[in-house]
Amino acid sequence: MKPQYLTNIALKINMKVGGRNTVLLDAVVGNLPRVSNTPTIIFGADVSHPHHGEGRSSPSIAAVVASQDWPEVTNYAGLVRPQARHEEIIQGLFNENDCGSGCISGGMIKEHLISFMRSTGHIP
Predict the structure, then answer these.
(1) Of the N and C termini of the chain, which has fewer Cβ atoms inside 10 Å?
(2) Domain span including residue 30
(3) CATH number for the domain including 93?
(4) pTM flag (> 0.85)
(5) What's the CA gap between 100 and 30, in Å, rounded?
(6) Which residue, 82, 66, 73, 92, is CA-closest to 20?
(7) What 3-state DSSP class applies to 14?
């Protein structure tokens, strides 16, 4: 077995048991004022589309990740949803009710916000 292979296995095991493989040092020592001083959640999102040869019934796939630890911002959770084929705007990002502007009843953003609050004890 090569050392690179064993290192890769060790990194995966460490993550599975709740460890951290990397830390953003500037965030930990407080050198990122907007992140270090205020509970902050960082989001990332993307949509993948089926290739032309995959048939007309294949959906596009939307994914949203969000940081779940603060101030380290190194642990991310991901959510994945199928959506209409070749739709670039993420359909499950927010699920709004008829309760006026700003009312969000669900969606991937709300799920990530609840998870962040449970994980950190802070509202971002």
Answers:
(1) N
(2) 23-120
(3) 3.30.420.10
(4) no
(5) 39
(6) 73
(7) helix
